[in-house]
Design brief:
Layout: E1 3-5, E2 13-15, E3 29-40, E4 43-54, E5 58-62, H1 69-75, E6 86-94, E7 97-98, H2 106-112, E8 113-116, H3 127-137, H4 144-154, H5 158-161, H6 174-186, E9 192-196, H7 204-217, E10 222-226, H8 230-236, E11 239-248, E12 253-263, H9 264-269, H10 274-280
Parallel strand pairs: 4-12, 5-10, 5-11, 8-9, 9-10
Antiparallel strand pairs: 1-2, 3-4, 3-6, 6-7, 11-12
Helix pairs in contact: 3-4, 3-6, 4-6, 6-7
Length: about 280
Amino acid sequence: METVTTDSPRNVHIDMGARKPNARPSGEPVFEVADLAVYYGPFRAIRDVSMSIAQHQITALIGPSGCGKTTMLRCFNRMNDLIETARVEGSVRYHGADLYDKRVDPVEVRRRIGMVFQKPNPFPKSIYDNIAFGPKVAGFKGDLDDVVEESLQKAALWDEVRNRLKESAMGLSGGQQQRLCIARCIAVRPDVILMDEPCSALDPIATGRIEDLMQNLKDEFTIVVVTHNMQQAARVSDMTAFFTAEVNEEQDRRTGVLVEYDKTEQMFTNPSDERTENYVTGRFG
């Protein structure tokens, strides 16, 4: 049996031998991950991750800092390719196709699988040009006005900015900027939206708007979100994956491992692994 050291302040040692297999969500799979490991040079950031993510659901990745949640998220649209020392092993299949096949164009991957980052990052352009930028680059030949309006409508921002489209996006509030970034992502008509702690820099009112928006968007998009906010994960997600970290104290390194993956209600009311229960109840993390 294997013993794992979590990054609990108390350095808890828990046996992994009786771990329950991860659940499969209902619905058509968008991503199927098998035996995934990610390295940065010789350092292994995550290991042995296997999970399936279903279409038109919100999947939350939770866990303490340093457990590989963002690294995992970046595997879904090959953002780790942009890091020179990064190496991905195992399998990530997208609608059945090998996402890391050498014949796959990573630029096309990132068009189909968009990403919204932790800190709002609007371009220093007008609101209109922020939304129109992606379609222009992709060679869109239709009516950009329609794309801008539709994207802002879907991001629940149109009514607030419809008379300000030529003004700088930098003049928007933080919550508005984040919704603008979601609208910019939507404008290129992706299949999946990845969100890396999209509300961490926002106040509770703006956070509530983003959460409501996520619920509306899942009818059209598949959403995977990294969050440190347990209440947020419980409120918005259909499935939750809990990661923790094996600690190598000699090298001061942490390797992320997937502890448990199941329906969100199950994860927060009756998790199968003691480490999950300790984390979601605030006993460590």
